[in-house]
Amino acid sequence: MKINGQDVALDGATTVDALIAARGLDPRRVAIELNGNVVPRAQRATTQLKDSDVVEIVSFVQGG
Amino acid sequence: MVSSTTPSNASAPGAPEPNPPFVPSATQEQIDERRRVFDALRALDPASLVSRQEIRDALLERHGAATQAKLDAASVAICGCGGLGSTVAVALTRIGVGHLHLIDFDVVDMTNLNRQQYSLWHVGLPKTEALRQVLASINPYLDVTCDQVKVDDGNVRELLENDGIVAECFDVPENKTFLVNAVLETFPDKPLVSASGMAGYRSSNLVTTRRVARNFYFCGDGETAPKPGAGLMAPRVGVVASHEANMVTRIILGELDA
User: Fold this and answer.
1) Do the domain assignments include residue B206?
2) CB contact under 8 A, A28 and B218
3) Strands (E), chain B
4) What is the helix (H) or strand (E) element at residue A48, kind and residue range?
5) How many folded domains does chain B comprise?
6) How close is the nearest chain B Cα to the Cα of A23, in Å?
7) Looking at residue B171, which CATH number applies to its domain?
8) Which residues of A touch B (CB under 8 A)?
9) Could you count the other beta carbons within 10 Å of the beta carbon of residue B67?
10) Which member of A46, A62, B202, B223 has the greatest number of CB atoms within 10 A?
11) For residue B174, which residues of chain A lie inside 8 Å, CB to CB?
12) What does the pLDDT average to over B110-122?
């Protein structure tokens, strides 16, 4: 699986939500793209990831 | 703006002194005069200063007819009219983007002036109203729509459906994240330019524009939040705002790569 351009080993079944938690990210401060499409917030808990997936995680900090 | 650029005043041992909180100290005369100046500026008939044709002629000399036609036809939503949004709006106004949609619920504060495009006579006024006047002093013939509202899942579709490009210019991370997710979910074919990580005075060279997905662009260094001694400041916020404004311009003119 690729995350932000880096090859990452997929450790067993994991959902988008689980990935966010595993990386210690705040789900209210990230947007997740999977194979070029956003993973809707309502589907993060049920969207399964696989080896061939390309994931982009974008996170937001204070300021603007 | 409700959130502070110095998130916590609690100091750890050896931590820098928290910034002194700003207390307004204007006299009533000054407050009244600011209002008088704003009302006078707002009451000016733009045609008394410049004709539509003269402004067009000036833009055409700079850009040429083909480029200007594309800019004329463009419509951009500026979500948030603070350091990012006011700066993006001014830049796009200067090049004559035909339609701007300003969205912000907040009022201008004196502490905004260290990075936002407002003047002294705007302090206390709603940002959309103040920004409208700022933009009108540059080109009063553009179409500017204002919504003094907070964007949420209930109104995002109706608010943004007529805007061709969305510029995410919020400040609170949860709001920035909400808007990006909502726009990507609701309008997958609408170009979205967002920004994060612009505080302090770290190197400008850390700031980039990245095309994350087909219609999703991200400007900033992605990590630098304000902290005591290194809050949001005009120069670096301006770098990121210009990245956003230039990416919007690229999209309008048909260059879709970052």
Assistant:
1) yes
2) no
3) 75-79, 99-103, 143-147, 165-168, 192-195, 208-213, 216-220
4) strand A48-49
5) 1
6) 16
7) 3.40.50.720
8) 28-31, 33, 36-38, 40-41, 56, 58-64
9) 17
10) A62
11) 28-29
12) 98
| Chain-chain contact of A63 with B216 (C-beta, under 8 angstroms) | no
- Looking at the complex, does the CB of residue B191 fall below 8 Å from at least one CB of chain A? no
Residue B4 has pLDDT above 50, yes or no: no
* DSSP 3-state percent helix, strand, coil across chain B (nearest 5): 45, 15, 40
The reply to whether B188 touches chain A by the CB within 8 Å rule is yes
pLDDT of residue A13: 65
Q: Do B213 and A37 touch (CB under 8 A)?
A: yes
Question: Would you call B188 and A33 a contact, using CB atoms and an 8 Å cutoff?
Answer: no
Q: Which residues of B touch A30 (CB under 8 A)?
A: 177
- Of B177, B188, B197, which is closest to A31 when you measure between CB atoms? B177
Q: Is residue B17 part of a domain?
A: no
Structure tokens at A46: 């049920």
Which tens digits make up the pLDDT trace of B124-151? 999 999 999 999 999 999 999 999 999 9
Domain annotation for chain A: domains and CATH numbers: 2-59 (3.10.20.30)
Name the DSSP letter for residue B214. Answer: T
First-residue to last-residue Cα distance in chain A: 32
User: What pLDDT digit, counting tens, does each position of B53-93 carry?
Assistant: 999 999 999 999 999 999 999 999 999 999 999 999 999 99
- Collect all residues with Cβ–Cβ distance below 8 Å to A56 and sequence separation of at least 6: A3, A4, A32, A33, B212, B213
Token pair belonging to B25: 């100290």
A39/chain B closest Cα distance in angstroms: 8
The answer, for B103 touching chain A at a CB cutoff of 8 Å, is no
Q: In a 3-state reduction of DSSP, which class is residue B168?
A: strand
